[in-house]
Amino acid sequence: MKKLVLESWLLLLYFECLLWFRGFARVHAAVREQPVHVATKHTELWTLSRAADFACVFYFKRVMCLQRSAATAVLLRRHGWNAEMVIGAQLLPIQSHAWVEVDGRVANDKPYINEIFQVLERC
Question: Is the pTM of this model over 0.70?
């Protein structure tokens, strides 16, 4: 579990730097281009999601949903899960949000989050 938390933490750092220096388009492309690896040993989805959550706790500043979802999606893909980062918005009150889905089910947020936000993009 420690190795997964460290991997998640490093992904959080990577996506923060990418967002800061290269912008949203590069973060989107990095997630979209990450292939799903064929896992030799299949790590449970719950374990990977928990590792990403723990990495957010140990990160040196508040982690925003886009950074967290990009890191989680890439972590899941690296471990054999077909994960999608989903970006959504709602009109009233105006806000946006990002989360991860695996096979159409929310993996890193409340299970009903996709009912609250209108999906704008999947990658």
Answer: yes
